[in-house]
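Reopening closed ticket. The problem is back. First fold of the pair:
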Amino acid sequence: MSFNGIEKKIARFVSSSPYLKRLLKFGYQSLHLGLSGTQFKTKFRLKSGWTIKRVQVLFDSKRYADFFGYFDVSPWNDSQSHILNHIYDKYEKKLMVSCHNIKTGQNYNVASTDAYNWQQGSRLQWVSNEDFIFNDYQNGKFIARLFNQQGCLDEFEFPLQVLHPNRLGFLSINYARLKDYRPDYGYDGHDSRFSNIKDENDGIWFYDFKMKNVQQIVNLSELKSQVHESNVGSHKVNHCLFSPDGAKFVFMHRFLLNGRRVSRLFLWEDNKLNFIFESAVISHYCWINNEELFTWLEKDGKESYYIVNVVTGIINPYANQEVSYWGDGHPSYCDGKIVMDTYPNRQRYQTLRVLDLTTNNYEVVAELYAPLIFNEVRRCDLHPRWSPNGKSISVDSLHEGTRHQYIITEEQ
């Protein structure tokens, strides 16, 4: 059951005030669950013809939880022989980076990390079919580390946000600023390089693997200078995402205006910064080709999924508006299809859907229960991610009462 029209109007009204929205949503769902008596039940609904299984099945869920992280990166390597994971030891309060052999079931806990959050993990990503990269906190600095199953191969002086699709390097952002202004995506720990940085030295950096150097390519001071209103604060950048060919990337510049959130979507291409769109609501997006994004945003007073052409600036509502009835989610694209989730409804079910962009039809694949005790920064969005061949979907879910990564596959 999704939210009704009245509930959606209230959600839209408070959408630019994240704290108020979270407070009202938590109170409303708590009241509904108390009246319906469904809280803390462990359950899921799966469409016939699909299967679901945990990545990790050999350890005690009372002690360990596991998850991958965000929806913009796939946990599989190119050959789909291994899958990446984070394993959290609840007793030791320690997060381990894990590489799992899909065929044999063997698991390699290769390292621990102190630079992570529950939404994006340590930004764990494959660099090659054998090597992977993730963030860590060592000697008072946020860094990125390159590993394979045998151990550490290299370390980089800046933390990772997103890897270039051709593995030329990676983009980096200021996680200390995110910790201050959006704790869901920041890291614990103090790094003096970022905590007291001037605006002209803050923004987005690119680390070049071949040259082994880092260069600032987006300047936060320049972004702030384009906002002419008064009573503005809490500036930050986040959600960098390369186009499939790696020629450009998009990101969001967010700030508070009179206490209400404003989001500005930008494109970086050919060493130039291009403004695309500003709204109270721009949330999640994925590339569907090298020029267009599938994006949830508000335009002309309507929140919906839109197709955003980053080259022309043209923004059109997605053809099948029924898709938007379910509300905002995390979209991931592969071979003409988008998998997306929803936030928990009043009964605390998160819905997983697959949308065919050729026919504009979609199917509901799964509904997974999320206990209300996991909320705010500890919440667990499904964050669906395609396998490279587009036949399986990775999600993080709480439907068994503990955070786990699952693989959902359509039977052939």
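Second fold of the pair, where the issue appears:
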Amino acid sequence: MCPRAHLPALIIPSAGDWPSLRVAGLGLRCLPRWWRCWGEDGVVRGPGRVGWAWIDASSLAVVLGGAGYWVGGALGAGVGVAAGGLVPLWIERATRREEAGEIARGAETAPRRFGPASLLDPGLGVVPSTGRQGELAALLAWCRDRSAGPVRLVSGGGGAGKTRLALELRGRLDAEDWRCVDVAAGREADVVAAERRAAAGARLLLVVVDYAEARTGLEGLLEAVARDAGQVRLLLVARQAGEWWQRLEAGQQAARELVADAGRAHVPLADAVEPGVAAAEVVRRAVPFFAARLGVPPPDPGLVSVAGQQGARVLDLHAAALVAVLAARERPAGAVVRVDVGMVLDELLGHEKHY
């Protein structure tokens, strides 16, 4: 039995004060709700707070009604009861807001600890942009040339540096008062109009669609670009120009013309990140940047031995630099650090197990 079950009875006025006796019934109607607030283990559950609020507030109505009758007769009793009767509503509303907040906080995911592999995210820019200067120059010229077609396609295998190239392009154009946006999935058809409304008066707009091969709303986006009266540039980033590209080539006339022009100026990314620079040198250059981000001393670049670098992607080379930094922490100073580019992703998975 709840330890406060006797509380309403303790504050009921005398039998001679009939308005207060009638008001005492307010305390009884909350008893079923109050009774359900207790679990079998005797612990007050979430709804218990609401139950207690109703009991205390209904008792308050009794007290206020009796006090009002004593001071101001029947009218005073009515005012007191009304004041006490509203309190349960206020308390219950506040309590439910508190419970809703607790539920929302409980649904939030716990903060995630990211392992060292997260440093390879191109959006973090841990290592300064490496190579691709020719492709970047071509894309900048395309954006600045008002007579150029508004669509370009950049393609390359996973880890070839497509996303980083698009980020570098955005960074350069941001400094030239362009409005640069990434398109969320499902927003392809209305992104141009939405950005024009958001930046009234701005005529320079770069729209980037990463993983374009997986998007279903590209035809609507192409039609919006064709209708736009400003200087809009649409950069499509994909692994290859496959069936999805062929479907666009067979679409509506406005989209077909844009796709045909983009196909003639297709920008494929080769495996060689920086012509004339050995892959091992790319690894050694990246080592100090990963060490700085991890807050550890970098290994001597001359002691980093790189194997298996033939045909490596920029992702592989940066992963090799990261693995070299992690391995150097476990070796004595001055020891040679050997990394095999073909195995670095497996090694990183081993480090991720600790996070």
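Update: turned out to be a display glitch only; the data is intact. The longest helix spans residues 46-107. Residues 7-107 form one domain. Please close again.
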